[in-house]
Structure formats: C-alpha cells, structure tokens
Amino acid sequence: MRIRVDTELCQGHGRCYVLAPGLFEADDDGYCQPTAERPVAPELADQARRAERNCPEDAILLTDT
Ligand code: F3S
Fold this sequence. Notes:
Helix content: 10-25%
Bound molecules: FE3-S4 cluster
Distance between the termini: 6 Å
Shape: globular
CATH architecture: 2-Layer Sandwich
Strand content: 15-25%
CATH topology: Alpha-Beta Plaits
Number of helices: 2
CATH class: Alpha Beta
Radius of gyration: 10 Å
Structural class: alpha+beta
C-alpha cells in the first residue's frame, strides 16, 4: 500500500494526523504531510484506511502498488 495526498484538495481539516499519527503530520499551516516510508508498513495499513475514509476532501489516496 502507498499513500498519496492531493495537496490541491487538502484543506487542513487535520483528521488524518489525528487518526493516523504514524503516517501523517501537520505542516506549519495545518495541512497534511505524509510521514510514512513508502510502501506503508502492514501494521499501519488500518491507520491509512481510517485516514482515507475520514478526510472530508477525499484528499488521501491509497493504492496497492
Ligand atoms: Fe487535509 Fe484531509 Fe488531512 S483535508 S489535513 S488530508 S483530513
């Protein structure tokens, strides 16, 4: 699994780094920055899916490759 954040869509709602602190952090303006090494470690896959489901802007994209 890999993570991509669409920076054009991210509005800084912050759910990603609250729900998945192992994978995301806030930049200085509160926008999402992925922190995970790619590909995502299997033990963090649930966090990644939770962040994807809860982003109100659908800015987080997960792929299998
Ligand atoms: Fe941005 Fe969505 Fe996170 S809007 S800060 S990617 S919850």
